[in-house]
Amino acid sequence: MKRKIPSTIALSVLEAAARHGSFARAAAELYMTESAVSRQIATLESYVGVRLFSREKKQVELTELGARYAAAIRPGLDEMEAQTLALMHSKDGGGVLELAVIPTFAARWLLPRLHAFRAAHPRISVNIGERADPFLFRGTPFDAALHFDDGSWEGVHKVHLFDEEVVPVVSPRHHDVQALRDPARLAQVPLLVKRSRPEAWQRWFALAGCTPGSVAPAMRFELYSTVIDAAKAGLGAGLVPRFYIQDDVRRGELAIPLDLPIRHEKRYCLFYPSHRPVSSVVAAFESWVVAQAAAFSAELAEDRGAAP
What are the distances in angstroms from CA 111 to CA 8, 12, 106? Predict the structure, then answer.
């Protein structure tokens, strides 16, 4: 059965005209004349039997149906473009990986290691987009995601990488680390916390067997990266995933006053969509990141064993 799909040229023209709100600007972007853009829109309107633009008072304006249709086709056009570019670059083991990553995870874990992947696969380009929350792959350009496990992921293959451990950290330049090995003393330091986990410190003190009579006022931040920077600046004690601050502790910029972690807070995984065949690019990245995660977990175990 023949698909009821208009010309991709007409759809691209509609998307550009809707985005710019102007036939002239769409024509300039697409290297077409304004009259050619107008003809493509008219042909598309004839095909679908719906007026997409109103043309009153010598101005063009999206109709309500036109705006809804343009918004609906945009993700599909983005994905077709991404898959076409990936195919064009797939010769001789090349390709493009569109990867979604949690912002702090990208900065603190992935980017310092990514040179090893590029060295092993020099013909694969990796484009990184930041996604703070789980999402549906359909309608996005992403081939895979490095993210935390969550029940809202649907239609994905999931590969477990490692679990999260949350530990307290302070700046040894601004605090007496030895004194803060007492949880009651630590409670008197301003507590830095991620806004989405306001109960984290309460859980940590319960784990430490401490019910402090009073707690210093907390400072809340949107991202773990900001919590870490605030701790480095001496603003208080942060409660953060161990793997984000491993290098900072080794350099002496941060210290863990009491190595008592809240374990298994989150599971970090590689996700990729189940509705697409697994490409050679995704398979190569999966093999590499699983090996990196295993090596990293071994490093963390060594660090815990060496901790005083």
Answer: 36, 34, 6
pLDDT of 289 higher than 90 = yes
Strand 61-62 with 191-194, pairing:
unpaired
Beta-bridged to residue 169, according to DSSP, are: 238
Segments in the chain forming alpha helices (H): 8-20, 23-30, 34-48, 64-88, 103-105, 111-120, 183-186, 200-207, 224-232, 242-251, 280-306
Beta bridge partners of 271: 145, 158
pLDDT per residue over 157-207, tens digit each? 999 999 888 999 999 999 999 999 999 899 889 999 898 888 888 889 999
pLDDT score of 263: 82
Contact, 242 vs 258, CB < 8 A? Answer: no
Architecture of domain 90-308: 3-Layer(aba) Sandwich (3.40)
Q: Is the pTM of this model over 0.85?
A: no
Does domain 8-88 fall under CATH 1.10.10.10? My reply is yes
